[in-house]
Amino acid sequence: MADKELAGIGVLVTRPKHQATDFVSAITQKGGVAIELPVMEVIAHDTAKIEHDVASLLEADIAIFVSANAVRLGLAHAGTAKIAAIGPATAIAIRRHGREVDIQSVDGFDSEHLLNAEELQDVHGKVIRIVRGNVGRELLARTLRARGAIVEYLAVYRRQIPEYSGEELAKITEQWQAGKVDVVTIMSVESLQNLLKILPRECQELLVNTSLVTPAQRVVQEAAARLPGIPTTLAKGPQVNDIIDAILACRNT
Prior knowledge:
This protein has helices spanning 21-29, 47-55, 68-74, 88-96, 111-114, 139-146, 166-177, 189-198, 201-207, 217-226, 240-252, and strands at residues 10-13, 33-36, 41-44, 62-65, 82-85, 103-104, 127-133, 150-160, 183-185, 211-214, 232-234. By secondary structure, the protein is an alpha/beta fold.
């Protein structure tokens, strides 16, 4: 891609602060303006608590990691289990931490696609540990239990909505009203829900007419239900280049 392809485009970045660095850099390098408004904070559980919880679990045959945060905080507790990654970013994090990925979807990056993996079909009697935050989707556990697996959770972090001052929200509102927010990026349904809780009413009204880019079909559906008429673009994946390509596509359109 040519340099400065995002010149003049303001992108609202909603990823947690510690996960947004590469994305913000990519936007800036291509001439865009990254407006950071993290809609989620990731709070690690105390190491002693994690170790206590691990001690109460069965020895896992398969450990499924649902996010890079789950890898960062929980991979050390996978033991000899086969390692499953729910998406490419999670798989990259696993390899960076020195383990190989044994199970991964080849054509998607969500629970539905991972459940199609051959290694997760015949799991009767196997112990599967899902490493995640304190809450999350139940589809993996429900489906694997239906296939006969023993499924246990290991929560290694919790998510919470950041608190913003009136001054911080007023600055975002001013930028939006001045036409400086062209695209909003959302990675998950929970992120969209949190954004709607954070934004002042004035911004929510502007959001309906702002391009929304996401790698998740579930976000597109949620946005259509909550914000009828909002223009959405589905990125082919959650990686930085995928999101950048989608931003360019929606702006060109």
